[in-house]
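Input set for joint prediction.
Command: fold jointly, output C-alpha cells.
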Amino acid sequence: MPIMQQGLAAPDGISLVETEGDPIISEIQRSEVAHLPGTAAQLIGERMRAMYAKLVREPVPGQLLELIRQLENKERSE
Amino acid sequence: MTENPGFGDELIKAIPNLRAFAHSLSGDSSLSNDLVQETLLKAWSHKQSFVPGSNLKAWLFTILRNTFFTHYRKSQREELDEDQAAMNASVPATQLMHLEFDDMRSALMRLSPDHREALLLITAEGFSYEDAARVCGCAVGTMKSRVNRARSRLVDETTNHHKADELRPAKTSTSR
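C-alpha cells >
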C-alpha cells in the first residue's frame, strides 16, 4: 500500500468505500470536458478561488489556537 | 511510536484552510468552527497513525470531510437538511459576470455535497485529482466526473439566468 494511502486512513472509523467507479464515467467525463464553455468555467473558477482566499484570510478564532496549546501542554505534563 | 515535536504548529498552520473548506462545505460559519475543532481533536488523538512525510494537509482534510459527512447524514436523518435545501433553493442565481461571494456561496450550496467538495478541493484548494480522490475515498475518474459535473451545473445555472436576464426589458443596456 502506498504511503499516501496509509497516511489518509480515516481515524474516525468512517468507511470511505463508495459504490461509484463505473467505467462509463470516463466516457461521460470526456464528453463533459469537451462541451464545457471554457470562459464560463474559468470565470467560475476565479470567483471561487477569490471567495475561498477571502475565507482563508479570515482571522483564526483564539479558541482553536488555545485548543492546540492546551493539548501540547497536557502532553508535556504527562 | 513517533515523536512529533512540531505537530501542534503544523496543525495551527493548517487551520485557515481547514476553516475555509469547512465553511464552504457546510455553508455555516459556526458549524465550520465546530468541524475544525473536532478535526483538530481527532488529528491530535490519532497523530501516531499519521505517516511522517505523507501529506498532512490531505490527511486533515480527510478527517474534516468525514466529520462533515457524519454531521450531514445525521442532519438528513433529522430532516434538517430539507430546511437548508429550501433556504438555498429560494436564493435566486445571478448573472455569471456579477457573481459575488454570497452568490457564489449560494450557488455552491445548491450543488450536492459530493460535487461541492470535489469542486472545492480541486478548484479552490488546488489539490491534484489523485490527492482529492484519496481525501474523498473515491476513484480518480469519479473525482474528475464530479468536478466536471459541478462546473457544468454552475455554468448551466448562471448561463440560463443570464439569458433570462437579457430577455427582461430595461435591465441592462445592450446596444448591438
